[in-house]
Amino acid sequence: MRLLLPSPAPAGKVPYTLMKEEVTRHNVEKIYSRGESITGRFRTPVKYPAERDSISGAEPRNVTTFATTLPAFVDPGLEALLMRTMR
To answer: Where are the domains of the chain?
Structure first.
């Protein structure tokens, strides 16, 4: 059965600030939150990291499905931003 219905690609971990920038660019198609976890889908893939990470060695890749964590500080403007841009 797994061959007929392959599992979706794992979500790419991205920084909260990158996710928020993409929301303002109207590049977030769907978003789900549960507690401090946020997952979603970009309309157009985003290259992350922008260049090879010299510390971890992570290579840039196109991320369509993303996951991030709400920062410990409260961001009171996120909900209003989402309501304005996700119509």
So the answer is: 12-74
